[in-house]
Amino acid sequence: MGSVWLMTIAILLSFGIIAHSFDGGSAPPKQQPTLCDELILPAGYPCSEFVIETKDGFLLGLQRVSSSSSSARIRYSAQQQQRGPPVLLLHGLFMAGDAWFLNTPEQSLGFILADQGFDVWVGNVRGTRWSHGHKSLSEKNKHFWDWSWQELALYDLAEMINYINSVTNSKLFVVGHSQGTIISFAAFTQPDIVKKVEAAALLSPISYLDHISAPLVLRMEKMHIDQMISTMGVHQLNFKSDWETNLLISLCDTRLSCSDMLSSITGKNCCFNESRVAYYLEQEPHPSSSKNLNHLFQMIRKGTFSKYDYGKLKNLIEYGNFKPPKFDLSRIPRSLPLLMAYGGNDALADVTDFQHTLKELPSTPEVVYLENYGHIDFILSLQAKQDLYDPIISFFKSMGKFSSI
To answer: Which N-terminal stretch is annotated as signal sequence (predicted)?
Structure first.
């Protein structure tokens, strides 16, 4: 173990991480166009921007997308009650709401749902580029990054659901991918949140992580990269920065082949357009917090789906117990319809962990198994419409919420 820690320190020193990262993050981001301006309006889809505030002061970007069809625009905007049912899209780790619009309108779930008449809402969690900071904290302040997926579930997702419910006066559908499923599972255990959800489709669903097989992630966990980064005062993770990109590359030595960096993290993806990777990287990855990574690695090490583990003393202060409380999946209402889709090549949402999740749920979800899919295929596969999105739409429409349109 000592040699691993020394190697990690050497990596951090070699890329100047220790020297320049105690300010809690990089310089403030340059002014950027909105997600509507960047990806959705240019594709011909009406799009509105909203800013909502969480209970702990974070300002989240939320977009609302309508069909590109002019007749549909007239139809769905004439009166509020004539809109289709609302559906909220929740992105994965190091991603944001743009993840649902990176392919053509015929291939991207966000566009497809809009064209099917759904009232599409696009979520962006705290820290991502399409959200808007904090009412009082600067992104340079370490307290700005003092959160994990626990807060994303109990504050960010809760506020998104509350806001959409208040605007539409309707229960909503939820679609989550990867981290979006982690926060959904956690939020759905809370009665005040789940009562406003009609049904959910969870892609690459994760509540347990102790059987992941991604080589690069497992190596980072073994080297305790998450703990070392936190110890060195790095609070923001931004893999668009040179030093964090170099950190990943440095882990790919002769003992771990990362000739395909993406596959070493996600598993082999079968079906996305590799010629568009440069375009995808114009949007991704988005920042997250080192505490969030630490929480995810706790899940790998402990095999639990629990709140953040601060250690015994602080746990006692925070939770009134030496151990962090679990998110009890059996508390998700049996009456909540779920569709869960997983892939045979997914190195993050492992089949064994998926089965563990199924056993703890009180209901029997509708399951879609895609043998060749890796973790990224669920949002970027060129075949996803017929493989996955059409079944999701059929699942949602089976709830009968289009009857008034």
So the answer is: 1-21
Confidence at residue 3, expressed as pLDDT on a 0 to 100 scale: 36
Cβ within 8 Å of residue 295, ≥6 positions away: 148, 149, 150, 308
pTM of the model: 0.88
Burial of 326-347, coded b for 16+ CB within 10 Å and e otherwise, reads ebebeebeeebbbbbbbbebbb
| Pair of tokens at residue 243 | 């030093």
Position 10 in a domain:
no
CA–CA dist 178, 379 (Å, integer)? 10
Tell me the residue range of the domain where 243 lies: 32-398
Rounded to 5 degrees, φ, ψ at 139 are -65, -15
Q: Which of 21, 67, 148, 178 is catalytic?
A: 178
Output the DSSP codes for 44-113.
T--EEEEEEE-TTSBEEEEEEE--S-HHHHHHHHSSGGGS--EEEEE--TT--GGGGGSS-TTT-HHHHH
Is 26 contained in some domain? no
Which residues are paired to 237 by β-bridges?
Answer: 288
Closest to 96 (Cα-Cα) out of 235, 269, 285, 296: 285
Query: Domain tally for the chain?
Result: 1
pLDDT at 401 over 90: no
The CA distance from 267 to 375, in Å, is 6
Note the pLDDT of residue 258: 47
Helical (H) or strand (E) element with 367: strand 366-370
pLDDT in tens, 218-239: 988 998 989 888 888 899 998 7
Taking CA 89 as the corner, what is the angle to CA 63 and CA 345, rounded to the nearest 5 degrees? Answer: 140
Question: Is the residue at 169 inside a domain?
Answer: yes
Instruction: Catalytic residue, from 134, 224, 286, 375: name it.
Output: 375
- In this structure, is residue 125 part of a structural domain? yes
**Can 143 be counted among the known catalytic residues?**
no
Active-site pick, 98, 119, 309, 346 = 346
Other C-beta atoms closer than 10 Å to the C-beta of 88 total 25
| φ and ψ at residue 344, rounded to 5 degrees | -70, -20
Active site residue 375: yes
218 phi and psi angles, rounded to 5 deg: -65, -35
Asked if 224 is an active-site residue, the reply is: no
pLDDT in tens, 179-188: 999 999 999 9
φ, ψ of residue 120 to 5 degrees: the values are -85, 125
**Among the listed residues 188, 221, 184, 174, the one whose alpha carbon sits nearest the alpha carbon of residue 205:** 184
